[in-house]
Amino acid sequence: MPPANPPSVPASVAPAVALDRSESDVVLIVDDVPDNLAVLHDALDESGYTVLVATHGEAALQRAAQALPDIVLLDAMMPGMDGFEVARRLKASPATAHIPIIFMTGLTETEHLVAALEAGGVDYVTKPIKPREVMARMGVHLGSARKARQDARQAREARNALDAFGYASITVRASDGRIVWQTPLARELLQSYFGEMGPDGAPTAFGQWAPEPVQAWLRRHVLADNAAELLAASLAEPPRLAVEQGARRLTFRLHQQAGDSAGGGDWLIVMREVSDAKIIESMSLSFKLTAREAEVLYWVVKGKINRDIGDILGASPATVKKHLERVFAKLGVETRTAAAAMAMNRIRQFHPQFEG
After folding, report:
1. Of the residues 124, 155, 186, which one is the last residue of a structural domain?
2. If we measure between CA atoms, which residue out of 184, 182, 246 comes closest to residue 214?
3. What is the pLDDT of residues 272-316, one digit of tens each?
């Protein structure tokens, strides 16, 4: 006999919060017939799956949004909202569109099977349900779904790693300049340097397009008549775009094609900001200098003499000389030239775009 209260998603699960997948895959069964639910629930539960159930369409949509199951077993024919409509709504929502749906149907006519696939199903099984057959079909699609999640997670981690090291990244469609995706740091930098830009370079509230200087640079190196030939040659990286804002400089590097080549394709662009403050902070941390010692060393690298450095920092040349002596001691050098060379080498490790 089926349980009086079939298992369902816990009330404490918040919307759009996925269950823990570390131990088992999560399966949502949608069927208005209790006997069908009981048979499948028990078989899947014994096989180690985490099983959720719904007995009608609205409950199925709610549970899917709450728990984000790894796969849905969906009855095609239910009173009220049928399985075809449930599938269409799941596929229409960005949060659940990725979830594979296997239809369960007693209808074997070709038009019904076609309707199931057109509604978003990846597979179907016919009634009466055979749990072993269902699990075999599930295994195929869960493997694909698991790989897709892993690839997406790795992509997110890679983008987050770029941000962590100060390299922001965006993907831009060459044909119209639309930003396909961007890391948080990239959005912050674009807003800081350009504001929100529209397709014609004018300000917009949405930030969906790359700034016009970036679009023009991308078109020049991707859509020009000889662009494909130059890129294929790979003899040298295309010239970088640099945008300056006071003491800050934002550079753009064309990294790789990230999508279909039609119309120029989508291109991954890596951005890096260089500023006096960031370079001075890097030197301070790298050489264990005080903030003022790092400032003095920075201006030595820039070729300034003690008097000029004093004017810049609001200190006397004698004070600058004392700071510089401590810098020499910490770097293990005896001359300005040696200190500048050591600092320049270290700066270029962390800020390749820096020009002394």
Report:
1. 155
2. 182
3. 887 778 788 888 888 899 989 999 998 999 889 999 999 988 889
